[in-house]
Design brief:
The complex is a heterotrimer. Chain A is built from 13 helices and 13 strands. Chain A is α/β, with parallel strands linked by helices. An 8-stranded mixed sheet of chain A has the order 7-8-9-3-10-11-13-12, with helices on both faces. Chain A is globular and about 65 Å long. By secondary structure, chain C is mostly helical. Chain C is built from 12 helices and 2 strands, in the order αααββααααααααα. The N and C termini of chain C lie close together (about 5 Å). Classes of the chains: A alpha/beta, B mainly alpha, C mainly alpha.
Chain lengths: ~350, ~300, ~325
């Protein structure tokens, strides 16, 4: 019944083979994005979100590599079977990406206009003047005042919010079908954050593109996406529609993330924090990768790696609680908190 | 006389090495020294360079026994500019002296001068840089402007000027002059290191506990500036040996007939078209020495500074 | 920009003042004075007395110092006893030749050094990287005068491709037209310039390689890749533009080495430049001439460094605005 998705990712594995061993940064991730859909990916830093997004564009540099058996299908073509030149033609053209820190993501020695104009210049045969005109136009579209003047500015001459608008404009130059936004608002003030998210939503509505929004901030996800993928330790641990997820989080990790979220109107002494830290990708824990930090974990969790259980319509969770829900009634102090107290 | 100086250099280096070794083996420094050593040993070009330097030093030390002739003796009128042969390995020069023996003795003198001059420059540079950095303020500004001025003069031009004004130079003054014109870069390095150390807590804590400046310099500053200084000194030997050769080549270094690598090349220059061997062989020794010092210095830097690895 | 320039000029003047004081101290500490009779130097007593009076050498030390600085400020660098004419006139004849050699050497060694550095960075870890660095270090370790001598030996004596010395073919030159003159002059330039380039390009290549490797780690490279820019354009355009900035500063720092190298290279090839004249002044113990060349070379270095700073400010938009 579902139409063919715009992007489907199956069993994506991105490993980094270093002298210290093999870091399995992304370890069997599957998901898909439909046309004009906005999907959020959340998780703590180190859980493989950014590596996933870079993998989609095949921007992983050695010693990292996408393992055989992974599959990324975009607009009906298998991206992993394309040669480098064909892949290059997709980047910035059909799939675009924006980054967390626009100050370092923009080249300091070129004007912003030149950096925007470069996108059509590399993908289309277009004159310098025409590319520049389109760059100026795009700067206006993303809400930069006085764009023909500003196009001559260097990145350091703009404010953080303006720089991120420039990044967004650069990504949208060729009306991509998919925009990957990797923590686009993390480096910005709260008010600017809201403006940038609003701009993204507005542009998505106007251009019918899909957005993959990567963030550690559930608040951002709640505001601007329709479906959420929760990642932990290189895996998808829960996936659901945004309302469903917020109403009924299933995975204890999602629960923990939500508890750690500051809420307007509620006054609490301190935020609840998930004990421990994301484990090392060189050596994921056996069984459920979250069991050391989980308040419900029992023997099965340490032994058996949970599959993605179907919880509801379009809602999956990688937690054994799906088959033994009664365990939720008896939370205990997680292993990591106990070990943490001793260490 | 030269043998005495050579012994002096060897003794000084031995003393320095022992001091470093003992210093390195105090308390927690052991493991660091071992990792540095381990990293150096696995650096192929650096190890080749080290072996080359040891061979050069030993061979030059044994020059009285290895030399086939007296380096100063004029062999025979018929043997002027004689090409290399089995008897005369590197041939003879315009005066009919055996180039092989001259190169052996010349290497010994040049190495000795370079090592002693480097020691002078390291001591001078460290003291100067540490003073400027530690005292700071106006004195620091003035001292560093002076270093800027010295650095703006090409070193060989300065050496030529000094050499011309005081010609002829004795070997001791040659060593001093070479050393006293080689420390500018080192002093900058040391000063920068001292400035960054001054900001660190341990020094502030030691100050608060009433440690005297000299004690702080000895306890905290010197150990930390050691690695950049050792690297700079190793690279510096290459510079000094080349500059000494240049001075001798210009005729204001070691006076004839005492051989040094530079003045053997000087003797060969007018006859380069017919008797190329006179200038060629001492030059090869110079290149090998300088190259080995540069490689060893790079290896040491890589071994001492993990951030630099693979650069 | 204007304030930067003013500040750097002031700093440069301070450096030159220190250098002048230093040369004065050297002259004062040296045995005898520039015009005194010494066993290896014959100067007529009345001539010596004349110059000693002109340069205040018969007055007390502070007056001598003031006199020295004043004459320097007038551009009077003293009187050369070996050439029997003012040092300034000698330098006016010889400095342009050095500048010609230097500027060509600087330009070519940067072109070669940058090209090598980019190549090494892109082929990092391969045989090409390793070999190029090894060869460059080999030439870098060579004493400049010996390198020049060997070049002369191989390319002038054994394979007589290039002239051995001088700036033109003295015998044939009068019959040449302007075109032949130019070719002849270029042929005389080849060997000295090659010597300079070989000895300096290693340092530049090493610096450029490190700068490239630093710049390629930066995040805007990922952005450029995500835009669909090809790797070669990224290297040539995005990375190189950023990696060239630190290289500009290096140009200023390379000048002393290049000038120092030029002294001996000029001597070996009898290139009538400042280095040549300085080296030949050694034998006649011409104090005024050698100390003047200390001043002039350091002035050239100071000017070069200021030029490099200004160029940097022009090339880096972040500094340009400030």
């Amino acid at each position: 019944m579902t139409p063919r998705p715009l992007l489907s990712v199956e069993e994506l594995r991105t490993y980094f083979r270093t002298r210290a061993g093999v870091a399995r940064a992304v370890d069997g991730v599957s998901f898909s994005i439909a046309a004009n859909e906005s999907v959020g990916v959340v998780g703590e830093s180190g859980c493989g979100k950014s590596v996933t997004s870079l993998s989609l564009l095949r921007l992983i540099q050695p010693p990292g590599s996408i393992e055989p058996g992974s599959r990324i299908e975009f607009e009906g073509t298998d991206l992993l079977s394309l040669d480098n030149e064909a892949m290059r033609k997709i980047r910035g053209n059909r799939i675009a990406m924006i980054f967390q820190e626009p100050m370092t993501a923009l080249n300091p020695v070129f004007t912003v206009g030149a950096q925007l104009a470069e996108v059509p210049r590399v993908h289309e045969s277009i004159s310098r003047q025409a590319a520049w005109a389109r760059a100026v136009e795009m700067l206006g579209t993303v809400g930069i005042p006085d764009p023909s003047e500003r196009a001559h500015s260097y990145p350091h001459q703009l404010s953080g919010g303006m720089r991120q608008r420039v990044m967004i404009g650069m990504a949208l130059m060729l009306s991509p079908a998919l925009l990957i936004a990797d923590e686009p608002t993390t480096a910005l003030d709260v008010t600017i954050q809201a403006q940038i998210l609003e701009l993204l939503a507005e542009l998505r509505a106007r251009t019918a593109m899909s957005v993959l929004l990567i963030t550690h901030d559930l608040g951002v996800v709640a505001e601007s996406t329709s479906r959420v993928i929760v990642m932990y330790a290189g895996e998808v641990v829960e996936q659901a529609g945004v309302r469903e997820l917020f109403a009924q989080p299933h995975h204890p990790y999602t629960e923990g993330l939500m508890a750690a979220m500051p809420r307007a109107g509620t006054k609490r002494e301190r935020l609840t924090v998930i004990p421990g830290a994301v484990p090392s990708p060189y050596d994921w824990p056996s069984g459920c990768r979250f069991h050391e930090r989980c308040p419900y974990a029992w023997e099965r969790c340490a032994r058996e790696h949970p599959p993605l259980y179907e919880i509801g319509v379009g809602h999956v969770s990688r937690c054994h609680l799906a088959v033994e829900p009664e365990r939720r009634a008896t939370p205990h102090v997680p292993l990591a908190a106990r070990a943490g107290a001793g260490a | 006389m030269i043998a005495l100086r050579w012994l002096c250099a060897a003794a000084l280096i031995a003393a320095l090495c022992t001091a470093l070794w003992r210093f390195a083996h105090r308390s927690d420094r052991t493991s660091r020294t071992q990792t540095v050593l381990a990293r150096y040993v696995t650096h192929p070009s650096a190890m080749i360079a080290l072996v080359a330097l040891i061979v050069l030093y030993v061979v030059s030390a044994l020059s009285p026994w290895l030399a086939t002739h007296d380096p100063i003796e004029i062999l025979a009128q018929a043997l002027v500019n004689h090409p290399p042969s089995r008897e005369l390995l590197f041939g003879t020069d315009f005066a009919g002296r055996d180039v092989f023996s001259r190169v052996l003795y010349g290497t010994r003198i040049s190495l000795t001068i370079a090592l002693l001059a480097t020691i002078v420059s390291v001591i001078m540079g460290t003291a100067y840089g540490a003073t400027a950095g530690f005292v700071g303020g106006k004195l620091d500004t003035v001292m560093m402007r002076i270093v800027d001025a010295f650095l703006s003069i090409p070193r060989i031009v300065l050496l030529i000027a000094i050499g011309t004004l005081w010609a002829p130079l004795s070997i001791t003054s040659l060593i001093l002059i070479l050393g006293l014109t080689a420390w500018f870069g080192t002093s900058r390095l040391v000063r920068a290191e001292v400035l960054s150390l001054k900001e660190r807590e341990m020094v502030a804590a030691a100050r608060a506990l009433g440690a005297r400046d000299l004690a702080i310099i000895r306890r905290y500053v010197l150990p930390n500036v050691l690695s950049p200084v050792i690297v700079a000194a190793t690279l510096g030997v290459a510079g000094v040996i080349v500059n000494e050769a240049a001075l001798s080549y210009l005729g204001i270094g070691i006076p004839d007939p005492t051989p040094s690598l530079g003045n053997i090349i000087h003797d060969g220059t007018p006859y380069i078209a017919t008797a190329w061997w006179v200038a060629l062989f001492p030059g090869i020794v110079l290149v090998v020495t300088a190259l080995a010092c540069n490689l060893a210095g790079d290896g040491l830097r890589d071994a001492m500074d993990p951030r630099q690895v693979d650069r | 920009m204007r304030r930067l320039l003013a500040g750097r000029l002031l700093q440069g003047l301070a450096v030159l003042w220190v250098v002048a004081t230093l040369t004065f101290a050297l002259l004062h500490l040296a045995p005898g004075d520039p015009y005194s009779y010494q066993s290896d130097r014959r100067v007529a007593p009345e001539v010596a007395a004349h110059w000693r009076h002109v340069y205040c050498l018969d007055r007390p030390l502070p007056a001598q110092y003031a006199c020295y600085l004043a004459s320097l400020a007038r551009g009077d660098l003293g009187f050369s006893i070996s050439q029997s004419r003012p040092v300034r006139d000698i330098l006016i004849d010889y400095v342009p030749r050095t500048l010609e050699l230097m500027s060509l050497g600087l330009l070519l060694s940067f072109a070669v050094g940058i090209a090598l550095g980019v190549l090494e960075a892109r082929r990092r870890g391969t045989f090409a990287d390793w070999g190029s660095r090894g060869i460059a270090l080999f030439f870098y370790s060579m004493p400049d005068f010996w390198l020049a001598l060997m070049l002369a030996l191989v390319f002038a004596y054994w394979l007589p491709i290039f002239p051995i010395s001088g700036i033109e073919n003295v015998i044939a030159a009068p019959t040449y037209g302007w075109w032949q003159h130019a070719v002849d002059h270029l042929r005389h330039l080849v060997l000295p310039v090659t010597a300079l380039v070989l000895m300096t390009c290693a340092g530049i290549a090493r610096f450029q390689r490190a700068a490239m490797l630093d710049a390629i780690q930066l995040e805007f490279v990922v952005t450029a890749r995500a835009k669909g820019v090809s790797e070669s354009v990224i290297a040539r355009h995005h990375v190189l533009r950023n990696a060239l900035l630190p290289i500009i500063t290096l140009a200023g720092l390379t000048l002393p080495m290049l000038l120092g190298g030029a002294v001996l290279v000029e001597l070996v090839f009898s290139w009538p430049g400042m280095g040549f004249i300085t080296a030949t002044a050694v034998g006649s113990r011409d104090y005024a001439l050698v100390t003047s060349s200390v001043l002039v070379t350091s002035a050239l270095v100071v000017v070069g460094t200021i030029a490099a700073d200004l160029l940097y400010a022009l090339a880096d938009p972040r500094v340009r605005a400030a």
